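Fig. S4 source data, part A: sequence.
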Amino acid sequence: MKLYIETYGCQMNVADTEVIFSILRKEGYERTEDMAEADVILANTCSVRDNAEQRIHGRIEQFRREKERRGAIIGIVGCMAERLKEELLEKRKVDIVVGPDAYRRLPELLKAVSPQSPQIDVLLSRDETYADIIPVRTDKLGVSAFISIMRGCNNVCSYCVVPYTRGVERSRDPHTIVREACEVFSKGYREVTLLGQNVDSYLWKGEDGEVVEFADLLAMVADVSPLLRVRFSTSHPKDISDRLIETMASRENICRHIHLPVQSGSTRMLELMRRKYTREWYLDRIRKIREVMPDCGLTTDVIAGFCTETEEDHRETLSLMEEVGFDWAFMFQYSERPGTLAAKKYPDDVPPEVKTRRLSEIIDLQNRKSLESYRRDIGKTFKVLVEGPSKRDPAMLSGRTSSSKMCVFPAGNLHTGDYTTVTVLDATSATLICNLTPDA
């Protein structure tokens, strides 16, 4: 039996897809990247924004053509499965619907599928972390690996559907995380990214009284080898601690990059969003990061046009972005998600044309700040990990700095997975154009 999976959304979904491949491989399924030859076709889905769900609805129609042509089993797994389970099954759009905490049951559910009996399991768990499963890595270059350290979220931001699709927060045994990091390093991987909806709130308590917080875990993984780079995502501004920042600064192989979603620069908006911090708190955390790690890369998420947002709220977002000077950002218009607190309590009352205009202003500002940030690096020298050929020029290689800026540079005698040193010659708003330093 051949298995094909399309993955949408966040890095956590990529990690989950690797878990699914591992579970089904033990049952004799073989991974394929050609949907036309697959016996089972799955979409691992995202529900964070409406356009993500609309894309999946379009793909389901294509999947159904494969089903009609040769009888393939088609299914939806992940967050969209959790949110739209009734619609997906009642309309017989798919054969199987499985939520993020039920992947262990996929083998038996697939066996039970019949034209008269579609299968579903979307029960959320309070303890499932898949800690004992060794994922089947999907990174073709074998350089970077994702390691899920926790699942779920307890924050319940008013706009966010994640707590309803991924359940309550639970942290994974740190010793299994370190073992997984050792395993991927032994296979030649040179970078791991520790994943969680809010990594800063990672907390594991062992039966022997051992307590491991995220700063402890970060140090444990970094100590696997000085040749193993360690990244993490995503941090929450209300939880990022001085101890975590100081731990990052204490080890060279912990990358100097923090993705710290701000969402809005207006304290009024942040309160409506239930973000549990203020504009002033956020800026204080930025100051602390730059005090301890002046070279730390900073990136963020921004929402334009949340409920009741005024022009003054919007200007506060722009002014915060101007003050911080993020390297880059994920920027979106607010889209109401059914079932969230905002959908129940707040009117989605910012007109679409106003959302579009405000988002355009946010994007224009960020493009300018990105270009300024990247151009400041001209003439500087950085250590980079070679990730593979440049997408635009196969004669060039690409790799990221510790601060997560993408570099392109001549191949020389380098190979994927090597470390090298480059000097920045020029820059765009998204790429550092480099040359190899003489000793590289």
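Fig. S4 source data, part B ends here. DSSP finds 14 helices and 21 strands in the chain.
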